[in-house]
Design goal:
By secondary structure, the chain is α+β, with helices and mostly antiparallel strands. It contains 10 helices and 20 strands. The protein has helices spanning 19-25, 32-39, 59-68, 113-118, 196-203, 299-310, 317-324, 350-355, 363-370, 406-416; strands at residues 73-82, 123-132, 136-142, 147-153, 156-161, 166-171, 211-221, 224-233, 240-248, 254-261, 269-277, 295-298, 328-330, 337-340, 357-358, 361-362, 372-376, 379-385, 390-394, 399-402. The radius of gyration is 23 Å and the shape is globular. The protein starts with 18 loop residues before the first helix and ends with a helix.
Length: 417
């Protein structure tokens, strides 16, 4: 049968849209790129094996295949590599949250999911994953000297860190149906952020006329036949070069997700299965008993204690609601920029920078080493860059951040004045 040649989806996806096509168009591209980068999950080695011969498929139909994919049961190994160009910062991700730990670290801080997710911000990691519907999931991060596991089995959620031999037990909150227990923060029901499926669907939830989508041949991934979906921004200001998603030819499950910056080089974000099985995992996969001698922490009690510790200083419901709104987003598609209004002085620049002194020496020289001073109608500020995400912090403390180049940030700040 003929190999797939590139088939482009252009502005408006072309012509009249059938209900099926309208549903497919929901799965678009760009805003999620910043979120994906924050989630910091990485990549697999290059596609292995000879490209299989598969029936020709259009980009619209392949997107629809991904949208309809509803795999509830699987097990496998995911290789995760990230190269965002971030500096190595000791102690990043030390907040506990989620499974106990509270603001001051708490007894379960070493087993907190948020801390472990932040450790995926750079380098290569191996994850073992398994799922059996919305009530049973397991994710294990396997390092050379230790293993970290999150296990959700009905109402029970365990987080275990073999390095500290600490286990945190929490109770999963009831779902709206009252028949299932949804996984708490750090272990979403679909292993969000830990597998190619989730990254691909995030990347396919925002596109439109700012995006080119083509089917770019086929590949073998984890021993499975797959189509390659190639996604590229049309907006010049984006730092994203392309996103390539390997889609299982049989069931539509994304098997590999690779995001390459416009600047070239290694992929910034690349997540992929090295092996995968879509059979029902053994029930014992989701069993967990703390090892002998492990320190067991009551995550529910630990979290409640931390909340009471806030006392009268606890934020009001109105304040929490405002905070939950998140940053304001300006722009469109791949050049969307999140803005956070400042209410005070930001980082020093200009003459203020030269006068700034800190405990470690000249603050101005330090700032020059990690960021570029910029000026515009907005005033002055600094741009801090990675291979993918850039941020502008103005002198009044306003922050502009996005997967866009420096000039696009400056233009956004000027327009906001």
């Amino acid at each position: 049968m003929p190999r797939n040649e590139p088939t482009e989806v252009t502005d408006g996806w072309g012509g009249e849209r059938s209900p099926k096509r309208r549903k497919a168009v929901r799965y678009g591209v760009p805003v999620a790129v910043v979120g994906v980068s924050a989630a910091m999950i990485g990549l697999v080695p290059a596609f292995a094996g000879s490209a299989p011969d598969l029936p020709k498929i259009s980009a619209q139909d392949l997107i629809a295949k991904v949208a309809k994919s509803d795999v509830q049961q699987l097990s496998g190994t995911v290789r995760v590599t990230t190269d965002l160009g971030l500096p190595s910062l000791p102690g990043v991700g030390g907040g506990a949250g989620g499974f106990g730990g509270g603001e001051k670290g708490g007894d379960g801080a070493s087993a907190a999911p948020q801390k472990k997710l932040m450790e995926l911000a750079s380098g290569a990691h191996t994850l073992r994953v398994a799922a059996d519907g919305p009530d049973k999931q397991r994710v294990s991060i396997v390092d050379k000297a230790a293993e970290y596991s999150l296990v959700h089995d009905g109402k029970d959620v365990w987080a275990y860190d073999s390095g500290s031999n600490t286990a945190v037990h929490s109770t999963a909150p009831d779902s709206r149906s009252g028949k299932q227990h949804r996984a708490p923060e750090g272990l979403p029901k679909d292993l969000k952020g830990a597998t190619p499926q989730d990254l691909a669907k995030q990347a396919l939830e925002a596109a439109g006329d700012t995006t080119s989508v083509t089917v770019d041949g086929t590949a073998k991934v984890a021993g499975r036949d797959a189509y390659q979906l190639l996604i590229k921004p049309k907006q010049a200001g984006s730092t994203v070069g392309s996103i390539r998603v390997a889609v299982d030819a049989e069931n539509g499950t994304p098997l590999k997700f690779t995001l390459t910056p416009k600047s070239g080089g290694a992929a910034a974000v690349d997540v992929g299965y090295t092996n995968v099985d879509f059979a029902k995992p053994a029930a014992s996969t989701f069993d967990f008993t703390p090892p002998k001698g492990a320190k067991v922490v009551n995550g529910d009690k630990d979290r409640a204690t931390a909340q009471r510790g806030h006392g009268k200083d606890a934020p009001s419901r109105q304040h929490l609601a405002k905070e939950m709104d998140g940053p304001n987003v300006i722009g469109k598609g791949w050049t969307s920029i999140a803005t956070i209004k400042g209410d005070g002085p930001g980082l020093p620049s200009g003459k203020d920078k030269d006068k700034a002194k800190g405990a470690g020496g000249d603050v101005g020289k330090f700032l020059d080493s990690i960021g570029d001073e910029v000026n515009g109608k907005f005033g002055s500020g600094r741009v801090f860059s990675t291979r993918l995400v850039n941020a502008l912090i103005t002198d009044n403390g306003t922050v502009y951040v996005g997967a866009v180049d420096k000039q696009t940030l400056i233009n956004a700040a000027n327009a906001a004045k």
